[in-house]
Amino acid sequence: MRRSLGPHLAATSIPGRVILLDREVLRTRGEFERILVHEVFHFVWVRLSNAVRRDWEGILANELSRRASGELGWSAEWRKNKLSEPDVRDRTPAWRRYACEAFCDTAAWRFAGLAGHEEFTLGERFRLSRATWFRRNLESGELPV
User: Model-level pTM?
Assistant: First the structure.
């Protein structure tokens, strides 16, 4: 916990195996859990196989082709809103950052134990598709942290 991380509520260093949280996350019920789960899943993301990450990207690309609006967290949503068709088609760094943040925000939605949150704006049918993906790919065994 840090007194302040400036404009950010959390920061993660994968090589340093460190998660820093702004103590602001303790002010609102559920924020600590939501933010911490998101940050922990950055460690899971980097240990997934390329095939599993590409499969996740397929879920996201399908959502975009169906014009799904909203997301399951601000960190994914602002990245999603900046994507262009070439970003998706060419798997640019912007696309890959979005895929990672959408994965971590989805994990926070799945595992933080919150019934709802103002940042959970993705439509129900797309949430169900992501939940199915998580069950199929991650919830059958130990997570690679």
Answer: 0.88
Q: Does the pLDDT of residue 65 top 60, yes or no?
A: yes
Least confident of 20-29, 55-64, 96-105, 121-130: 20-29
Residues 59, 137: contact at Cβ < 8 Å?
Answer: no
**DSSP H or E stretch at residue 10:** strand 10-13
Question: What is the C-alpha to C-alpha distance for residues 130 and 56, in angstroms, rounded to an integer?
Answer: 9
pLDDT reported for residue 75: 92
Cβ-based neighbours of 105, under 8 Å, separated by 6 or more = 38, 71, 72, 73, 75, 76, 119
Q: How many CB atoms lie within 10 A of CB 39?
A: 20
Distance in angstroms (rounded) separating the CA atoms of residues 105 and 95: 15
